[in-house]
Amino acid sequence: MASLLQLLFLLTLSCILLYSTKANETPQPYVVYMGSSTKINGEGDFEAAKLAHLRLLSSIIPSEESERVFLRHSYNHAFKGFSAMLTEKEASVLSGHDEIVSVFPDPILQLHTTRSWDFLEAESGMGSNHPYPHSSGDVIIGIVDTEISFNLLLYDCVGDWSVGIWPESPSFNDNGIGEIPSRWKGVCMEGSDFKKSDCNRKLIGARYYTIQYSSIGAKTGGNKTHAVKPAGSPRDFEGHGTHTASTAAGSTVLNASYYDLARGTAKGGSPSSRIAMYKACSITGCSGATILKAIEDAIKDGVDIISISIGMSSIFQSDFLNDPIAIASFHAHQMGVMVICSGGNDGPDPYTVVNSAPWIFTVAASNIDRAFQSMVVLGNGHAFQGYAINFSNLTRSKTYPLAFGGDVAAASTPVSEASNCYPGSLDSKKAFGKIIICVDADPAIPRRMKKLVAEAAGARGVILIDDAEKGVPLDSGVFPFSEVGDMAGLQMLKYINSTKNPMATILPAEEIPRFRPAPVVAYFSSRGPGGLTETILKPDATAPGVAILAATIPKSDIGSVPIGKNPSMFSLRSGTSMACPHVAGAAAFIKSVHPGWTASKIKSALMTTATTSNNMGKPLTNSSDSFASPHEMGAGQICPLKALNPGLVYETTTKDYLHFLCYYGYKEKLIRSMSGTNFSCPTTSFEDLISNLNYPSISISKLDRKRGSQTITRTVTNVGSKNSTYIATVQAPIGLVAKVSPNKLIFTDNLRTASFKVFFSSDGSTMGYKFGAVTWSDGLHFVRTVFVVNVV
């Protein structure tokens, strides 16, 4: 028997090794990143660069496989490089070339409003009638968007379609908007269902991407490149791109609603700004190589701000020089373009935040002061407040049999699986016509799947018991669905066990205005510390991302449109994908008032003026009703109006980011290639020094509790009154000592910048993360710098 097991083991091992060897020999898509590029505007230079890339490829690909000498994408504006089909060995050979910074497999990336902007304005404390300063309509927001990933089924509508934009939406009406800025160099690409006339003075550009092969002599003969015209269109078939674009900069639309829910005036954060859409994915998926190309095009076209609701997996995060978004965003910053990204939807676990490079503005998600209630009424008359977005046709006057999922299990199905409404776990004969109660003990089965399982079994509706996620309403269309907390769920189960014929009904959704508390950090919002380094605080800030009303495509899917209604031009969606364009819109608003401000000034203004209080005047909380930490909310929830006049700002320069790369451990040679300069790393470089970069927040990964201390230096620039004096106050928790020197900063006509130090030490008490803040104030401005210190 032992010899047989050994033989089977050897056979299995041989198969694995054979498979691994063949996999290594099979060409796969790779990205070859070659660092910074000079700005090449001439078409001839661009073609010459592609030809050079092709010659480099031909030097490593065997002559008998010459058909593989082609470029999937070529980059040569803000940065250099290309994407091609390579074996693992060929990729390894290429990575040894002097001119190449990194070579990595082309990753598949994930995706990660009537009231939301009014709520942000109200939370600023300035009142709804606060006059907006004169703003310019010349700010251009580039939206790089993609398809819905299946791990987001909890928060966004299911879909396999790529996304883009629905130009017919009233949110992209250009009435009252001036001529397109002359600096705009973008295009409006046509497709079978998209014409140049679909663009206007609001939607000024639209691109879409499929693999555009370029090869040497494959089809034209000689050493020339050949481009295959891409197929497709910039049109949105899912709704995500339209939703994010209208959230950031949608025009004002009166009387907008989602089938009468959330009715009001819909608008983007910067209604006067222009939109350029970069549809970066197709039905077959979304590649990092294409994201690189889309961001490069956005920079070349002339956008001011890029909003990216996409990210790498939090489980398999790549380092900064192997992450397409981190690479492209660095070069965007070099060229003065601000990049804002969603932080991910893998919360509430720590170390799940993505897009954590310091040159990216990383956004967490929170709710607003509006919720959607779907009441559950039992046969005994007891009513429970559940949460959902549903357009059920059930009423109080008629109830239906109520059953627990575990009591209607299919034959040979464990009760635990039926209780969780696993696929195939319910007996259709037992479940038919009943309202089924499911629990959420297994997060591997998302809410939408449970709803589909019950619906397929012929159930009349579903009640889900889930305390943590009830704050994020699921849109179940016309199917009756409601989500209740643990206490309400327990009472419902007791009711089932106390009567022979338990009955219930689920009422359609109703809006709950002036909901409290808000904001609350959303359950799904990814948390810090950053998995790549804890010496930069991520996320940077929080913005509305729960049940956000914005434009969408008019869907007519069965079960999604209430009886007697036409498909809605608006939808309610949740995710950090929705929070990201809120920051993009806020940044565009600030840029329109302060056109000379850099990306780092805008970022600093939004972070240091963020609020950490909710609409009850208490500290922000998370979905567990605990105080939210900076690892969950960053500096707090953005207040765009306050950010217009922050008083002081932290200017984080490209040199700071190059120092970051040195301290992180990258070789000087790679950093020079990335920066396109003769930059030299400091003689002393180690990761803890990252904490000393001039960032708008402070994070220290290790502080010895018995004998350790650390000094942090920061420099602020006065953008307020020329002659002003700021005094520092420190909010530090028990167990941490924080002192500021000097504690007074004086600014004059000739002195616009000042530096200060913060000394951190432990008093020897408990270990773990300590949170606090340094606030500078001149009596009018309050410049809050949050800090995180890990006492070890």
Describe this structure in words.
The chain is α/β, with parallel strands linked by helices and 792 residues long. The chain has four domains: 26-105, Alpha-Beta Plaits (2-Layer Sandwich); 112-213 and 226-369 and 520-641, Rossmann fold; 371-511, Glucose Oxidase, domain 1; 648-791, Immunoglobulin-like, CATH 2.60.40. The chain is 22% helix and 26% strand. It contains 17 helices and 40 strands. Strands 17, 18, 20, 21, 22, 24, 25 and 26 form an eight-stranded mixed beta sheet that branches. It has a seven-stranded parallel beta sheet with strand order 8-12-7-13-15-16-28, sandwiched between helices. Strands 33-40-39-35-37 form a five-stranded mixed beta sheet, with no helix packed on it. A hairpin with a 4-residue loop joins strand 17 and strand 18. Helix 5 (240-249) packs parallel to helix 12 (576-593) and helix 6 packs parallel to helix 7. The longest helix is centred in the N-terminal third of the chain and has 24 residues, at 2-25. The protein is globular and about 80 Å long. The model is unreliable at 1-23, 147-162 and 218-228 (pLDDT under 50). Residues 138-618 form the Peptidase S8/S53 domain. InterPro entries: Peptidase_S8/S53_dom, Peptidase_S8/S53_dom_sf, Peptidase_S8_Ser-AS, Peptidase_S8_subtilisin-rel, Peptidases_S8_3, S8pro/Inhibitor_I9, S8pro/Inhibitor_I9_sf, SBT. Belongs to the peptidase S8 family. The active site is at residues 145, 240, 577. Residues 30-112 form the Inhibitor I9 domain.
